[in-house]
Structure formats: structure tokens, C-alpha cells
């Protein structure tokens, strides 16, 4: 289990997280949702180890990650940030292979990972010439290689993995998250889009004001009352057929 | 450079499959520059003779008679100068490549952002104030102290620059460039103040800080610079993968397993060693640290595991080439080395900028 327990975090005198808890479980997909400023990204960064919480702790397989060296941590979990600017003109294959041992073994992994994100043809392309969506998928491939090179199935944290993707690619990422979970990876993603969250999640954690406002299956969390509470709008949740969905057209401020 | 031009006109990067090819090409250039630097001068010595003299010296023998003059020229005049050129050229190119990696920007160069100026200020201060003090005790201490002081000056400048331009793990390029220019100007002003207190002889020595020169090369200077360059090389060997990961950003480098703080401090010590020791023995030499890593990126790609060793080799070779030009262009007088590197490097760099604006800033 990979958990952030009872996390409190302040920045510039503001309390961004106030006793929030999130858990990634092997074989399951957990999705963080919530309005802007709810603390999703902050909780994500605390979980990744980028930010040190003021209070509370992050543990991975029972050990506090504060004491785990970065190289060891990298063998246990991979992280997909929102967007990545690469400083020098690296090729796609080089970017995907960054951070893992190379050699023939590494090359095969890079090829497999790019095939999984449906970018096989771009191996030798220059990363900085790609579209936003392609860059996002290249970064996803990079995390796949890191997971494969690590110890055990591991954990994958994704911050808005569908943000700059079109509908087909969004579905591709959702399918990948599910496949990884089936391979035993503990997947935790921040998602803005409630419909994608409902499709992707085994468990949804809804944040508001730095606290966990609700957690449970998509059916438990995505209710008319909860949406009103979280986003301050009235909306009607529909069903298709066993997954809740929300049409913006049905919502009113 | 022809290869670079070809690669760019074709609009693609030429990348050898095997890193060995790239390293081999750079090594060949170093060997050619090494021989040329020993052969060319007021007295031209055939490469065959040079190899004979070097071979004999390796066996502890010295040729006598008619060959004595050539032996002295090669072993006592040109060899220390050539080795110093390799060390300094390799050192500043490597320091440049690491600076660019750590600041995540191809424009970062110790000469451009005040690090070399910091080293020059410390070195000048040592010569004028501290040196006379130490020389009174032991002359050897005065010589050994110079690179150490220059290293310290470069270290202070690098740390200051880093602290100013980085906040919450993000380095602002604009702040870095402005702060570097300001620090450089401040250090230059300080050097100007120190020079006021200098004697006439010291004043003559200082002219070479401004433009750089290998003219004063001695075996002592080679030995004084060597430990710093070895330290830089040792550090560079540990930085390749970390600098690749840092190209993604500091948080991302941490995600893939890099100890970012440790990497930064290692890099800063290495940069200061390379830039400081170079300034101490050869003055401020511009553009090598900027142009050489850039060339390697165009030719062989930006991966640091190949970039760092290639930059060190190519930097050494190019500086030797520039020194040969500096020695022979207006013979028997000598051009300052910095005049040659800037004279060739600056137009070339401007041309690169014009060709590749998008790649640099896109």
C-alpha cells in the first residue's frame, strides 16, 4: 500500500491540505477529484515525495518515504506530471529511456512502452516538435518503462493524464490505467473530468478545501447531492448503464 | 564544423549508432591538435621527430647534439603549453556543458554568467595582496595558492548565482542571465580596484586575464591545474544520467530516482574547479564553454553521458587549434588566445543562433 495519511500542508500562509488522506492500492485505480483549489495537486505532490507535509506522513510498503533514497523510491513508484518541458533537443526514444538503465534491454522496453501508447512510429522524432498530446503520451511511456525496470508491479501516480488529449486518446489512457491495475500496479490519478473519473475509478476520493469530502465507488460519490456540495452547482447525474455520468447541459450554477 | 554545417543544412541531426564512433572522432581530433601544437611554431618540427623525442623522453632519455634544440623546444616549451591547452580547453568546455545541464539552458556558460569573472577577481586579489604575503613565506605557496583562490572565487560566484536565480526548485533563466551579468560586472569592477594596487610587473601579468593566454605555460602550471581538472572529470563521470534526468525538470528528476540536491552541489563544485583552475593558469577564455557543448549536441545529440566526454575532448582540441593560430598569425608576436576564440567563436555562435532560434528557445 502507498498511503498519504492525515496530511496537512501550508504554503504562503494558506492551508492547502487539512488532514487529507489518499491511498493507492495494488491492482486498483484510485481517482482524486474536486474543484479547483481543493488540494488535489498538492496532495499528489506530497504523495510523490516532492513536497514535505507539515503534518502527517507518506508511507510506501510500511516505510516512511522521507527516509527512502530517491533511487530506491524510483524503483517502487513512477510519476506522470501534468506537463513536461524538456530542456535540450532529446529524441522521443531518449526521453522515454531517461532515468532507466540503457542497453539492449532498455531499448526493447522503450519500444514496447511506445507501442502501448500507440506512438511506435515516433521513436526517432525530436521531442520538442511533438504536439501537446503526443508529449503527454511520451511521458506516459516513460513512466511505463520506469515501472517495468523497477521492483514488482509498483505504483503509478498520474496528474491529469488526460488533460491535453482528444477523446480517443483519453480512452486509450483510461484503458492503459485499467490494464496496469490488472497487472497488479496500484494506480492513483488526479482527474478533472468527472465522467472519465467515473469510468476509470475503482475508488473516488473527492477533495474540497484541503479535506476529503467523500470517498467510495463512483456510484457512491457521484450523486446529485455530492456534486452540489463539491462544486456548488445543481446537476442531474445520469446512468450509462452502470456508470454514473454528468452532462454539463444538465447543470446550473 | 563542416559536419555541423552539413547536418544543419539537411535539417536533421546526424547521430552515430555507436557512442564509440563519436568518442573516436573526438580522440582523433585531439591527437591531431596535439601533434600540430607541438609541430607548429617559429621552428617547424616534423611529426616523426616529435614522436621520436616524446618516445625517448618516455624512456628517460634526452637526445643530444644537433637534436638538442628541437628536444628543448618540444619538451620544455611546447609540451607544457600543449598539455595546459588540453586541460584548460577540456576544463572550460566540460564546465560549460555541466553549467548548461544544471541550469537547464544552452546559454549558461561560466564565462557569460560571471563565474569566470569571480575566479579572476579572486586570482587578482591573491596576486596583488595575498601572494606577496605568501611569497614572503614560501614562493611555492604563492603558486599553489592561485588556482585554489580562483576555484574559491568561482565557487562563491556559482553558489551566489544559483541561490539568486533558483526558488522552490525552479531556475528562472532571465534572472540567471541578469544576475550573472551583474555578478560578472561587479567582479570585473572589483578586479579593476585590485589592479590599482598592482605593481607595474603585476599590471603586465593582468593584461592576460582579460583575454586569456597559454603564453605563460610551465610544467608547474600544468601540475597546479591538474588536480582541479581531475576533480572535474571525476564529478562529470557521475553526472551523466543525472543531467539527462534534470532536463525533464527537478521534480521529474527526483521521480526517476535522482538525488537532486546532491547532483547540484556536485555540479557546482565541478564547475568551479574547471572554471577556476582555467582562469588561474590561462585567464578568461570566452566562447569555448558555450560553443563546444552546443556543437556536440548538434553532432551527437544532447545525452550527457556522451556529451560530457566529447565536450572535454573537443574543447581541448579546439583550444589547441586556437592557440596555434594565436601563436602563428602575427608571428613573432602573439595574439591573446581569447581574441582568437572570441573572433572565431562569437560569429559562429551568432550564426548558430540565427539558424536555430526555434530549437534554442522553443
Outline the secondary-structure elements.
The complex is a heterodimer of chains A (253) and B (362).
Chain A: E1 2-11, E2 14-24, E3 29-33, H1 40-48, E4 55-60, E5 63-64, H2 70-74, E6 77-80, H3 92-97, H4 104-116, H5 132-149, E7 155-159, H6 167-182, E8 186-190, H7 194-200, E9 203-208, E10 211-216, H8 218-221, H9 224-231, E11 237-239, E12 244-246
Parallel strand pairs in A: 3-8, 3-9, 6-7, 7-8
Antiparallel strand pairs in A: 1-2, 1-4, 4-5, 9-10, 11-12
Helix pairs in contact in A: 4-5
Chain B: H1 2-9, H2 19-39, H3 47-58, H4 68-103, H5 115-137, H6 139-165, E1 166-167, E2 170-171, H7 173-196, H8 200-211, H9 219-246, H10 250-255, H11 260-282, H12 288-300, H13 304-328, H14 337-355, H15 357-361
Antiparallel strand pairs in B: 1-2
Give your account of this protein's structure.
Chain A: It comes from Ancylobacter moscoviensis. Chain A: InterPro entries: AAA+_ATPase, ABC_transporter-like_ATP-bd, ABC_transporter-like_CS, P-loop_NTPase. Chain A: GO terms for molecular function: ATP binding. Chain A: Part of the ABC transporter complex HmuTUV involved in hemin import. Responsible for energy coupling to the transport system. Chain A: Belongs to the ABC transporter superfamily. The complex is a heterodimer of chains A (253) and B (362). In chain A, the strands form three sheets. A six-stranded mixed sheet of chain A has the order 6-7-8-3-9-10, sandwiched between helices. In chain A, strands 2-1-4-5 form a four-stranded antiparallel sheet, covered by helices on one side. In chain A, a hairpin with a 2-residue loop joins β1 and β2. In chain A, α4 packs across α5. In chain A, 47% of the residues are buried. Chain A is α/β, with parallel strands linked by helices and 253 residues long. Chain A has two domains: 173 residues, Rossmann fold (3-Layer(aba) Sandwich), CATH 3.40.50; 66 residues, no CATH class. The longest helix of chain A has 18 residues. Chain A is globular. Chain B is mainly alpha-helical and 362 residues long. Chain B has one domain: ABC transporter involved in vitamin B12 uptake, BtuC (Orthogonal Bundle), CATH 1.10.3470. Helices cover 78% and strands 1% of the residues of chain B. Chain B has 15 helices and two strands. In chain B, strands 1-2 form a two-stranded antiparallel sheet. In chain B, a hairpin with a 2-residue loop joins β1 and β2. The chains are: A alpha/beta (253), B mainly alpha (362).
Amino acid at each position: 500500500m502507498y498511503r498519504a495519511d492525515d496530511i496537512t500542508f501550508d504554503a504562503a500562509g494558506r492551508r492547502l491540505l487539512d488532514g487529507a488522506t489518499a491511498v493507492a492500492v495494488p491492482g486498483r485505480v484510485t481517482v482524486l477529484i474536486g474543484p479547483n483549489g481543493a488540494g488535489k495537486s498538492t496532495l499528489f505532490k506530497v504523495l510523490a515525495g516532492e513536497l514535505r507535509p507539515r503534518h502527517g506522513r507518506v508511507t510506501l510498503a510500511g516505510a516512511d518515504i522521507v527516509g527512502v533514497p530517491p533511487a530506491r523510491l524510483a524503483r517502487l513508484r513512477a510519476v506522470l506530471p501534468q506537463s513536461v518541458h524538456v530542456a535540450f533537443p532529446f529524441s522521443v526514444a531518449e526521453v522515454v529511456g531517461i532515468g532507466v538503465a540503457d542497453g539492449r534491454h532498455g531499448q526493447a522496453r522503450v519500444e514496447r512502452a511506445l507501442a502501448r501508447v500507440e506512438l511506435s512510429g515516433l521513436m526517432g522524432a525530436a521531442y520538442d516538435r511533438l504536439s501537446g498530446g503526443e508529449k503527454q503520451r511520451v511521458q506516459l511511456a516513460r513512466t511505463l518503462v520506469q515501472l517495468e525496470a523497477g521492483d514488482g508491479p509498483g505504483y503509478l501516480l498520474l496528474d491529469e493524464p488526460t488533460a491535453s488529449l482528444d477523446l480517443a486518446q483519453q480512452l486509450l489512457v483510461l484503458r492503459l490505467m485499467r490494464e496496469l491495475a490488472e497487472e497488479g500496479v496500484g494506480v492513483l490519478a488526479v482527474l478533472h473530468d468527472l465522467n472519465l473519473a467515473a469510468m476509470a475509478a475503482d475508488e473516488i476520493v473527492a477533495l474540497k478545501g484541503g479535506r476529503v469530502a467523500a470517498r467510495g465507488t463512483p456510484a457512491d460519490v457521484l450523486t446529485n447531492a455530492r456534486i452540489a456540495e463539491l462544486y456548488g452547482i445543481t446537476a442531474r447525474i445520469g446512468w450509462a448503464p452502470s456508470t454514473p455520468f454528468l452532462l454539463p447541459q444538465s447543470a446550473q450554477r | 564544423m563542416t559536419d555541423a554545417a552539413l547536418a544543419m543544412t539537411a535539417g536533421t541531426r546526424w547521430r552515430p549508432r555507436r557512442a564509440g564512433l563519436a568518442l573516436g572522432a573526438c580522440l582523433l581530433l585531439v591527437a591531431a591538435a596535439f601533434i600540430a601544437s607541438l609541430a607548429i611554431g617559429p621552428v617547424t618540427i616534423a611529426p616523426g621527430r616529435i614522436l621520436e623525442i616524446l618516445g625517448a623522453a618516455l624512456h628517460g632519455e634526452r637526445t643530444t647534439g644537433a637534436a638538442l634544440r628541437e628536444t628543448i623546444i618540444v619538451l620544455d616549451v611546447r609540451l607544457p603549453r600543449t598539455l595546459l591547452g588540453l586541460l584548460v580547453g577540456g576544463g572550460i568546455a566540460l564546465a560549460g556543458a555541466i553549467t548548461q545541464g544544471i541550469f537547464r539552458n544552452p546559454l549558461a556558460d561560466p564565462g557569460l554568467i560571471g563565474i569566470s569573472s569571480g575566479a579572476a577577481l579572486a586570482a587578482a586579489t591573491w596576486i596583488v595582496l595575498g601572494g606577496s604575503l605568501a611569497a614572503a613565506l614560501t614562493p611555492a605557496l604563492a603558486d599553489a595558492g592561485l588556482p585554489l583562490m580562483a576555484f574559491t572565487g568561482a565557487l562563491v560566484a556559482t553558489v551566489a548565482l544559483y541561490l539568486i536565480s533558483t526558488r522552490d526548485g525552479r531556475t528562472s533563466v532571465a534572472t540567471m542571465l541578469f544576475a550573472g551579468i551583474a555578478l560578472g560586472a561587479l567582479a570585473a569592477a572589483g578586479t579593476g580596484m585590485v589592479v590599482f594596487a598592482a605593481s607595474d610587473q603585476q599590471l603586465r601579468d593582468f593584461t592576460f586575464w582579460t583575454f586569456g593566454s597559454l603564453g605563460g605555460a610551465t610544467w608547474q602550471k600544468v601540475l597546479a591545474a591538474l588536480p582541479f581538472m581531475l576533480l572535474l572529470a571525476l564529478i562529470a563521470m557521475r553526472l551523466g544520467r543525472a543531467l539527462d534526468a534534470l532536463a525533464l525538470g527537478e521534480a521529474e528528476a527526483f521521480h526517476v530516482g535522482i538525488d537532486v540536491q546532491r547532483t547540484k552541489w556536485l555540479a557546482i563544485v565541478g564547475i568551479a574547479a574547471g572554471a577556476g583552475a582555467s582562469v588561474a593558469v590561462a585567464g578568461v577564455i570566452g566562447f569555448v564553454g558555450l560553443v563546444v557543448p552546443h556543437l556536440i549536441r548538434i553532432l551527437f545529440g544532447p545525452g550527457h553521458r556522451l556529451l560530457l566526454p566529447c565536450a572535454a575532448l573537443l574543447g581541448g582540441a579546439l583550444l589547441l587549434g586556437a592557440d596555434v593560430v594565436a601563436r602563428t598569425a602575427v608571428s613573432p608576436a602573439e595574439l591573446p588566445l581569447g581574441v582568437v576564440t572570441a573572433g572565431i567563436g562569437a560569429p559562429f555562435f551568432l550564426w548558430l543562433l540565427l539558424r536555430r532560434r526555434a530549437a534554442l528557445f522553443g
